[in-house]
Amino acid sequence: MNSSIRPARPADLDAVCAIAQDAPLAGHWSRAQYESEIGSGLGLFAVLEEDETLGFFILRRVEAEAQLVDIAVRSRDRGRGLGRDLLAAAVAGARSWSSSKMTLEVSAANEPALRLYRAAGFRIVGRRPKFYNDRSDAILMDLLLA
User: Which domains are seen in the chain, by residue range?
Assistant: First the structure.
């Protein structure tokens, strides 16, 4: 099957919320928070789909930088390279804004995500000890784009 990445629409909210709730080690937003991102003009909220929604990302502009706010793939579709595809699309979005760098924050306990980000060229630039509810550290990462 061919997958495609497109801007999120209100009709995607149920699938996005289900994927987010199923994501391990994720900071879960409310439906209203995801809904407010669609069409907010603050950045790019996109979904990856084949016949149905398989994943999503949220990217925001923060002055000359782009911040990856959230990224997730449906649990039964993990391990297929879809996270890599979503991340590549997010990086392309940041480049299209002429962002100087892209930043993100991830739980130190989320090894698959850390591997994904490192493979894409992100580097660790900081740490927030015991930041999350489970007391895991937040790892701050960035990717220089300019």
Answer: 4-144 (3.40.630.30)
